[in-house]
Design brief:
By secondary structure, the chain is mostly helical. The protein is about 40% helix and about 5% strand.
Length: about 900
């Protein structure tokens, strides 16, 4: 009998009560001692359409990528165990948070990281943990999972990956070094070990490079190579570099004026009346847009019309070939993909929607491995990508929006071909690091959030910079050249052609604040959304959300997120009262834990962000944060503000002004708002100053504390809410910049980029952030609300993102419902007057103190009629025991032996819990 048959035939027998008690004891033992692997199906038993595969990269520990298979996939957690991997969770978060993973073929199943490296008491830092990546059937792009493996409902053909190292909360760094196709059955075996480049970072001397380029100008206005003829493409690229190196300047003005006077000679080198050179037109239009000039009237030419009026309707295969056309969608005479990409970008920056076929051409020249070829080939022709073209096209497609899959494949390709020293070669088969390829790839990696890889590439470039400031063609060159130096300058200036500008940002009117009605035109159905959030299959006993399907362990952070959503809408204050009372009265979940176990308040592991999040909820519903859950939460926050950075191995304080064990900008901002709303401005000053210091020059915030260099919509929105509440000239300027940056990230369908792609979470938070200045961003808010409405399912819940796994997700839904109201966490208020305390659950109830209900397939429908759709997080499946991989068929004798063996561990852990050492 196969595993699937065994699972579906589980039924209680005459010994059911005794067996349930025994299994509960086994499950309790496994919570502390770790889950041991099941007997795995061979990888070959899975196919591209049957079963699911998991790959774990043990490269950081000296191993290889190990794969496992489950021919009858359930959850991501089950896939690990059924695939032959052993796991351990943390004492703080339980087994659902994967802290260690081991495999029998590597060091006799030792689970990594070992206790000497990571004690697995608290949640590990985002710089060193097992990150979780997923891909659906047919996809060759990884999606970072912000949620636990127990929430992942697998289907045939799905692939999971676990990678140890660092990433941010958006999953923009630390991606697997292999693709889903690399580990799928029939994909040629397992990939090589992953890992980021080891080359040291370094800074390019941008000023010296700019000075060297100015020295190459003839008459201070043009580049001349090999004689007296002006090289217009090199001249315009030099102008880009001057803009990146110094912004507006007389040198740049002189070069720009020269190119303006000679616009015709540049774009129609064969004389007027000829079809313009698309690449030349695009380069000149981009210079106009970078320097604040009008690309529709530059040197007597409408450069935008030159592009839109010369798009190929067909290629040679149409029977009547048009000169300069390789295929439908080409810009005439573009020839190379670089020219096509620059033309699309020039239209985008001019506010002109590029013809769809022109953008499609960029996706058609992407090879199977994610690289982009340099020539505008036709379908079926040989495709061989190169890093320079791939980097440019990835940035342009990201700017165009709606091409998350292609951008992800390009990013994966760049990660795969980057050398250990950080460099990139110019083409397949080359062994020498190339300056242009490395510069373009570095710009793309930074723009796509791969900060560490970008730093390594920039570091390699810095070591190739010659004494005079210029760069040669490739590694160890001794002669500088103007062909490569301009692109390296943009890389050193941390910019690219998508973002480069000499404009100085101007302040807008001060943001307006204040609550607004919960229902907004064109937005999602909030009544259905609240029904989904409060359905009994999700909100256990009307008090808390569980940590995973079938679990009786409360996810306190998610529970508070749900309470925020209910408070924002005011559509079910009774259920909101039940959640608040559960927290305030320190009621216990099914494992006997209270909110104190989550915040760590009163212990050496007190988490300032968690305390702040709890206090902010109390303030939002009219409770006293100085007397909530039996604590003065504001005093605890005051104590949690770091006076200085802690020294390793103590990781409690990231910097002065950070909060203890607050790993993200999100945590920092929530805690600040809690202090400010309690009138505790004086003690919040250092925290506010630290938050302000994390803002990037373009207005964005990173996701993590300490920062990793990424830019994150969610974090920028929450930081803006905190500083809007703080007020003052500095804070107001920071908010203005943040809102402009958020608006600039909006995709064509109204969504916003986030960890899971075109993200519901990010769109909802963007609505909240932009609503701080609703008059200025009315258009963007309206588009985002329509995007959210499109992602709402028939059961009222929301998808995680526009692409990927379909079905309602609880975490995404909490944010979507609250965010759609546009109410800032800094001003959120909801009175609980007129509500009554919810009835206390009886012992043994679902999620209470008794044995959990074993839910069979088909159970768990909401009694409120909110069923329907593929509910990703519903507590159905095979129940709590199935979700942790504990088999009903375990022999009683084995269970007894396991518990006896683990007894001392259990006792020791309980003693540590009593003293507060494991919170």
């Amino acid at each position: 009998m196969g595993r699937k048959d065994a699972r579906t035939r589980r039924r209680p027998g005459v010994c059911g009560a005794g067996l349930s008690a025994l299994l509960l004891t086994v499950a309790a033992c496994l919570t502390f001692t770790g889950a041991t692997p099941a007997t795995a199906d061979p990888v070959g038993a899975c196919t591209a359409t049957r079963g699911a595969v998991v790959a774990v990269d043990f490269g950081p520990f000296g191993g290889m990528v190990e794969r496992g298979c489950d021919t009858s996939p359930g959850t991501g957690y089950q896939l690990l165990r059924e695939g032959g991997f052993g796991t351990e969770g943390t004492q703080h978060d339980g087994p659902a948070f994967i802290c260690r993973i081991g495999h029998g073929s590597f060091h006799a199943g030792t689970k990594y990281p070992t206790p000497a490296k990571e004690p697995c008491v608290l949640t590990p830092p985002a710089t060193a943990y097992w990150s979780y990546w997923t891909a659906s059937r047919g996809q060759d792009e990884w999606t970072y999972s912000q949620y636990g493996a127990m929430d992942r409902k697998l289907k045939d053909g799905d692939v999971d990956a676990w990678v140890y190292g660092g990433t941010d909360v958006g999953g923009t760094t630390g991606r697997p070094a292999f693709t889903p196709d690399d580990v799928r059955p029939g994909g040629g075996g397992g990939p090589a070990p992953g890992g980021e480049p080891t080359g040291p970072p370094g800074d390019i001397d941008v000023r010296a490079a700019g000075a060297w380029l100015r020295g190459q100008l003839t008459d201070g206005e043009r580049i001349v190579v090999d004689g007296s003829a002006t090289d217009y493409p090199l001249t315009v690229q030099t102008a880009y570099a001057l803009a990146a190196a110094g912004g507006s300047s007389t040198d740049l003005d002189k070069v720009t004026a020269f190119l303006t006077r000679h616009a015709d000679a540049f774009v129609v080198p064969n004389g007027t009346g000829e079809v313009p050179d698309a690449a030349a037109v695009a380069r000149l239009a981009l210079l106009a847009e970078i320097t604040g000039k009008d690309a529709r009237d530059l040197g007597g030419r409408d450069l935008i019309a030159d592009l839109t009026g010369n798009v190929c309707a067909a290629g040679p295969d149409a029977g009547q070939p048009t000169p300069g056309c390789t295929a439908k969608g080409d810009f005439r005479n573009a020839t190379y993909v670089e020219g096509q990409a620059l033309a699309v970008l020039a239209l985008l920056r001019a506010g002109e929607k590029p013809p769809t076929a022109t953008v499609d051409r960029l996706t058609q020249v992407q090879c199977r491995d994610g690289g982009v070829t340099g020539v505008l080939i036709r379908t079926g022709e040989n495709c061989d990508g190169d890093p320079a073209t791939t980097g440019l096209v990835a940035l342009v497609l990201k700017k165009a929006g709606g091409h998350t899959t292609q951008v992800g494949k390009a990013r994966d390709y760049l990660a795969k071909v980057q050398r250990d020293d950080g460099a990139f070669t110019a083409y397949t088969g080359s062994s020498a690091g190339d300056v242009t390829a490395t510069a373009y790839a570095a710009q793309a990696l930074r723009g796509l959030g791969e900060t560490r890889r970008a730093d390594a590439a920039e570091g390699w470039l810095s070591r190739e910079q010659l004494p005079g400031g210029g760069f040669g063609f490739e590694q160890d060159a001794t002669e500088p050249t103007v062909y490569t130096t301009p692109t390296a300058v943009l890389t050193g200036a941390r910019t690219d052609l998508v973002r480069l500008t000499t404009k100085k940002t101007e302040p807008t009117d001060p943001p307006t604040t204040g609550p607004r009605p919960p229902a907004r035109d064109g937005g999602p159905d909030l009544k259905k959304g609240v029904a989904y959030l409060t359905g009994p299959a999700r909100l256990k006993q009307s008090r808390y959300y569980p940590a995973g399907p079938g679990s009786s362990r409360a996810d306190f952070g998610l529970t508070i997120d749900g309470a925020y959503a209910l408070a924002a809408t005011g559509l079910n204050n009774g259920k909101l009262r039940g959640v608040v009372d559960f927290l305030d009265k320190r009621s216990k979940d099914g494992e006997g834990r209270t909110v104190d176990d989550w915040t760590g308040i009163g212990t050496k592991y007190a988490a300032g962000g968690s305390i702040g999040k709890t206090a902010l909820l109390a303030e939002s519903v009219g409770r006293d944060p100085r007397d909530f859950a039996g604590h003065d939460l504001i005093a605890a926050l005051d104590k949690a503000v770091c006076a200085r950075k802690s020294e390793a191995p103590d990781r409690s304080c990231a910097a002065k002004g950070a909060y203890t064990y607050a790993p993200s900008v999100f945590s920092q901002a929530l805690a600040i708002m809690a202090q400010l709303r309690a009138g505790d401005e004086r003690n919040a000053r250092d925290a506010i100053a630290y938050l302000e210091s994390l803002q990037h020059a373009d207005g964005a915030w990173p996701s993590l504390v300490p920062p990793t260099g990424d830019s994150d919509v969610d974090s920028t929105a929450i930081a803006a809410m905190a500083l809007d509440l703080a007020g003052g000239d500095t804070a107001d300027r920071a908010v203005d910049k943040a809102l402009r940056w958020i608006a600039s990230q909006q995709l064509g369908d109204g969504g916003f980029p986030g960890a899971a792609g075109n993200s519901v979470n990010s769109a909802a938070l963007a609505v909240q952030g932009l609503s701080l200045d609703e008059r200025a961003y009315e258009k963007e808010i309206s588009a985002a609300l329509k995007f959210l409405a499109a992602q709402q399912n028939s059961d009222g819940g929301f998808n995680v993102a526009e692409q990927g796994q379909r079905g309602s997700d609880l975490r995404a839904s909490t944010q979507a419902v609250g965010g759609a109201t546009g109410i800032s966490f800094g001003t959120l208020e909801r009175s609980l007057k007129g509500t009554s305390a919810q009835p206390a659950p009886k012992d043994g109830g679902d999620g209470g103190g008794g044995a959990p209900r074993i839910v069979k397939p088909g159970d768990g429908e909401d009694s409120d009629g909110a069923g329907g759709g593929d509910v990703v997080d519903a507590t159905g499946d095979d129940g709590a025991l199935a979700s942790t991989g504990v088999r009903i068929g375990l022999l009683g004798a084995v269970a007894v032996l396991l518990c006896l063996a683990g007894w001392r561990t259990v006792v020791a852990a309980r003693r540590r819990a009593t003293t507060g050492g494991n919170h």
